[in-house]
Amino acid sequence: MNRAYRAVEVASPGQLRLVQRTTSEPGPGQVRIQVEACGVCHSDSATVDGTLPGIAYPRVPGHEAVGRIDALGEGVQGWAVGQRVGVGFLAGSCGYCEFCRNGDLVNCSNQEYTGIHHDGGYAEVMMAKATGLVSVPDDLSSVDAAPLLCAGLTTFSALRNSPAKAGDLVAVLGIGGLGHLGVQYARHMGFEVVAISRDDDTAQLAKTLGAHHYINSGASDPAAALQALGGAKVILITASGGKTVAESFKGLRPGGVSIVLGVGPEPIETSSVDLIFGSRKLEGALTGDPATGDRTLRFSALSGVSPMIETAPLEEAAAAYAKMMAGQARFRIVLKMG
Ligand SMILES: [Zn+2]
Ligand SMILES: [Zn+2]
Question: What pTM value is reported for the model?
Answer without folding.
Answer: 0.95
